[in-house]
Amino acid sequence: MSASIYPLANPKGEKKLCEICQKPAKLQCTKCLVTFYCNLDHQQADWTSIHEKACPLLVSINTPVPSGTLSDQNHHHKETLKKQHWIMRVYGSCTVELVPAYLLLAQANIGIGSLSQAQEYLSKAEWIVMKTADCSHTVLHQLHRTLGRLHAAMGKQASALTHFANDVYYAIEMFGLDSIVTSGGYFLMADVFLKQNKPDIAHSLYTEVAGSWHTHLCKLMDGISQSATQPDECFNEVQCVEADQMLSCILEFEEQCVKPRPEQLTMLAHSLAMLWLLRDNYTKALEYGKKAEVLIQGVKEQNRLRESIHNLLQHAEKNMNETANLHTADCNTH
Predict the structure, then answer these.
(1) Residue pair 160/151 in contact by the 8 Å Cβ criterion
(2) What are 230-251's pLDDT values in tens digits?
(3) What whole-number distance in Å separates Cα of residue 246 and Cα of residue 332?
């Protein structure tokens, strides 16, 4: 069971930090969706100094790995490496701003199985962090998450767990105990425990991850129903792929358990339905919504969840019909 979670994605609904001063930020680059700023002056300063050149590359780097053949995936990783090398040349010095580039390079090398090269980049990132006294918790959690992934790929499960534990610690300090960022560390730890043949611990961690995502997605859905949030503000494509990977993996694990838990299965199916509804994929939203509707029949005292699933199905069916009608009208026009 793989855990190919992108370590640098910045999920919506979490704290954002200014690229210049690391203060809380609300402005986001609308092209790459990676960088954030506390004000227009800092956004303009970063654009003229570096971001204008790096932005087009960040757009392509921050796209999901193709789900096709191994050859397609290797090509994607190699192209990513080329673009990330260019970013490193632009930065030009061993400052803490270079750490994300090293982490991206390490991530891409882990993806194509070049573990020695990944280890080299991570050693450089560790050295920079060690000599940076005020390194942010965000950078530390990202560093340990990538180190954990490397050690897991190398078969060093004990050291992988140590790094994932540090990842979770710094993520909690930065984003909070119930954050979906923190839950990513729990998910990776669960994968290691499964490899160590400790399914009970993995089960417990998966429960935490599923709960965090269900709560987060329910809040996003409430924001949309109250017209406080637009669907396209909730997730970009990369974040949606990451969430789908985690939730689908946990759902599969729960289904294969000797004693499946209907309530947990229902919550996971409901989460996936909400996720795809937020991305306007009504086919998948209906698929998982109907699955949740069937599963909840085996759950007692879940009237609120039952109502939420019912409302989701109505919303998805309505939007799917409207989309189909618009398509038919366009065809008739032409």
Answers:
(1) yes
(2) 555 566 677 788 899 999 999 9
(3) 41
HSE value, Cβ hemisphere, 13 Å, CA-based, for 73: 12
Q: What is the DSSP string of 204-269?
A: HHHHHHHHHHHHHHHHHHHHHHTTSS-GGGT--HHHHHHHHHHHHHHHHHHHTSSS--HHHHHHHH
What pTM does this model have? 0.73
- Evaluate whether 19 touches 46 at the Cβ level (below 8 Å): yes
Task: Tell me the average pLDDT across 47-61.
Answer: 66
In 3D space, the residue among 94, 148, 141 whose CA is nearest the CA of residue 119 turns out to be: 148
Q: SS3 of 100, please?
A: helix
By residue count, the chain amounts to 334
Q: Enter the tokens of residue 92.
A: 């030009």
Q: How far apart are CA 22 and CA 29, in angstroms?
A: 15
Region of 234 (left: φ > 0; alpha: ψ -120 to 50; beta: rest) is alpha
The one-letter code for the residue type at 315 is: H
CA distance 214 to 222: 12
Average pLDDT, the chain: 80
Rounded Cα–Cα distance for residues 149 and 115 (Å): 10
To which residue do tokens 């982490």 refer? 103
CB-count burial class (<10 Å; 0-12, 13-18, 19+) for 218: middle
CB count, 10 Å around CB of 173? 15
Q: Structural domain boundaries of the chain?
A: 18-63, 258-334
Which two structure tokens, joined as six digits, stand for 28?
Answer: 């986001």
Is 261 within 8 Å of 247 (Cβ atoms)? no
pLDDT tens-digit readout, 103-148: 888 888 888 888 998 999 899 899 988 888 778 888 899 999 999 9
